[in-house]
Design a protein that fits this description.
Shape: globular
Helix content: 25-40%
Strand content: 25-35%
Bound molecules: S-adenosylmethionine
Radius of gyration: 22 Å
CATH topology: Rossmann fold
Number of helices: 10
Oligomer: single chain
Largest sheet: 8 strands, mixed
CATH architecture: 3-Layer(aba) Sandwich
CATH superfamily: Vaccinia Virus protein VP39
Distance between the termini: 19 Å
Structural class: alpha/beta
CATH class: Alpha Beta
Number of strands: 13
Number of domains: 1
Order of helices and strands: EHEEEHEHEHEHEHHHEEHEEEH
């Protein structure tokens, strides 16, 4: 869906061509999720289906296009369009989610989400302003989600984690895994992580190392991604140097293995490339359902999504 913007506001500008691939992939899975669960566990009393958008944005994504020019015989004009972001796409999914929770840290974008909520009073929308990691911890430690642990309870959820970069804490992933009733689509920031992992470990400053601890959920990455060699200097003192061994493909596989340490199922990633063909994100689907048939169905839905969007 696109609408030509008539407002004078700045709009929310982010992403590139890969953003559409990402949003359509998640939206397709949302549809699959709701279709599969629509009459489950019984048609008489189906699960309450929740959608969580933890880095929700404003609801729209502003893009600019140049129109006109020499070959069209008119001066170049820049057109701005507000395209549907993840929130508006989630609201369009059929069958519909019963409840939707949108979390956003930026005040102006949060206010846009409140307006979307006001214009859809019947949709069971909650908008939360603040840090996504903290807000998700609050949601999942209170009713009805605090009763869902171990896959019990009558709610099932789908959570989209769509950060700009390395903003998702490991404890958030663990909280979602522990519910055993929420499927997660996680935009793993492969490019940002690869850039933080400098060629030599001593070039990764303490703040970055702490952030990488959060991303991988372990301190072990230092030993697994880097190889340490010890030599003697001129004065026979021991010097140890840790050199990065992993290329970007290995970093992506390492990330998947870490996710698999807390989720029973971590999909192959959907690679998201920028205009120069460089992979900047890896989009994973994660589930920790205790049910083998449920995991089988999730795999089926994800294979369909990956097949449809990988070639784009
Ligand atoms: C890539 S954008 C999300 C786009 C959105 N999913 C869409 O499709 O329209 C990331 C959003 O996360 C928000 N954000 C960044 N860090 C956050 C945090 N720690 N907690 C909550 N929101 C955060 C930013 O303000 C931004 O709106």
């Amino acid at each position: 869906m696109t609408t030509t913007s008539t407002t004078l506001d700045q709009g929310h500008r982010f992403g590139g061509a890969w953003t559409e691939v990402k949003l359509e992939a998640v939206s397709d899975y949302c549809e699959f999720f709701n279709k599969v669960l629509v009459d489950q566990p019984t048609a008489h009393k189906p699960f309450e289906r929740w959608y969580f958008d933890a880095f929700a944005g404003s609801g729209t994504r502003r893009v600019e296009r140049a129109e006109g020019g020499l070959f069209e015989g008119k001066p170049v004009e820049i057109q701005t369009e507000d395209m549907a972001g993840s929130v508006l796409k989630a609201l369009k999914v059929e069958p519909a989610f019963h409840k939707l929770a949108f979390i956003e840290g930026h005040r102006g974008r949060f206010q846009s989400l409140e307006k979307i909520k006001e214009s859809h009073p019947e949709r069971g929308i909650t908008c939360l302003h603040g840090d996504a990691n903290k807000k998700l911890a609050e949601i999942f430690s209170s009713s009805p989600w605090s009763n869902q642990k171990g896959g019990r309870g009558s709610c099932r959820g789908l959570c989209f984690l769509d950060p700009y970069g390395m903003n998702v804490d490991w404890s958030t992933l663990k909280t979602l895994a522990d519910t055993q009733s929420v499927d997660v689509w996680y935009l793993f920031p492969l490019d940002a992580v690869s850039r933080q992992l400098a060629g030599k470990l001593d070039r990764v400053d303490d703040n970055k190392q702490r952030r990488l601890d959060e991303i991988f959920g372990t301190r072990q990455w230092r030993d697994e991604i880097y190889k340490t060699e010890t030599t003697n200097d001129l004065f026979a003192d021991l010097i140890s140097t840790s050199t990065r061994q992993f290329d970007r493909g290995q970093i992506e596989r390492y990330a998947k293995s870490r996710l698999n340490s807390i989720f029973r199922y971590a999909s192959d990633p959907l690679p998201l490339l920028n205009d120069s063909g460089r992979q900047i994100f890896s989009l994973f689907c994660l589930s920790n359902s205790a049910s083998d048939p449920a995991i089988g169905l999730i795999q089926k839905g994800v294979s369909w999504v990956l097949k449809k969007h990988s070639a784009r």
